[in-house]
Amino acid sequence: MIVVKVGGSEGIDLPAVCADVAALWGKGQRLVLVHGGSHRTNQVAELLGHPPQFVTSISGYTSRRTDRETLSIFEMVYCGEVNKRIVELLQAAGANALGLSGLDGRLLEGQRKAAIKVIENGRRRVIRDDYTGTVQRVNVSLLRLLLDNGYLPVVTPPAISLEDEAINVDGDRAAAMIAAALGAETLVILSNVPGLLRDFPDEGTLIREIPRSRADEFMEHAQGRMRIKVLGATEAIDQGVGRVVFGDARIAEPVQRALAGQGTVISR
To answer: Rounded to whole angstroms, how far apart are CA atoms 96 and 83?
Structure first.
């Protein structure tokens, strides 16, 4: 069992990712595909006159500022355009994909944050009208029901809160929770870089292997969104996933190459 997370940044080759996932599926590999859609969400938000905003928490993690209007745009792009495009690509490649969000069947459930503490212009600020949270529970029986009946689940945020509201959750950490819940051997996290770079953006400085015991030391090399990917990787390992691989989603056969160790491998 493997879980693949593909990001939504600019430059990602979705057709190549889907072709590779479908090829593995055709060989009998059980897997779940989790996806993002950040770049397209930014574009749509600009077109709709509600430009994206990003905030940095006091612990140094960057995330999307999610007011109610942003949440609606987020759902439109992630659950609609991007999810259905991926399902279309997978179906065309021969995999019987089924798209669903974390809201459906309470697939991803968690607590909405009462407030988020951010750093803005060097000062601390508290934001209270934000629809964000963290996945705490995965409806693993729903995923197994789909897998056991020949479907390839294609999962996207948002999640549902304990108060029954949609909440924006990080896709990498959600994928880590799904991988742990399913007892996956490997979690593959694909993005528009070849892995964790010692000297970003120099791709010649790829860090090829990180033992979990030293993951915190390597966090200093993680820039921007890569910080939360490292966090998600450590959470997955700590919950029993065998290894996490950061791979390149701009190349042919990105999943199979990641499974072969091409990228950054974090393991116990």
So the answer is: 14
The vertex-210 CA angle with 187 and 136, nearest 5°, equals 40
Q: Residue 73's Cα: distance from chain center in Å?
A: 18
**Token pair for residue 14?**
């979705």
Give one word for 187, left, alpha or beta, with left for phi > 0 and alpha for psi -120 to 50.
beta
User: Is this model's pTM higher than 0.85 or not?
Assistant: yes
Count H helices, E strands: the chain?
Answer: 9, 16
Residues whose CB is less than 8 angstroms from the CB of residue 144 and which lie 6 or more positions away in sequence, other chains included: 182
**How many whole angstroms separate alpha carbon 15 and alpha carbon 250?**
10
pLDDT less than 70: residues of the chain: none
Looking at the structure, give the CATH architecture of the domain made up of residues 2-49+70-107+139-267.
3-Layer(aba) Sandwich (3.40)
H or E element in which residue 45 lies: helix 38-47
pLDDT attached to residue 254: 98
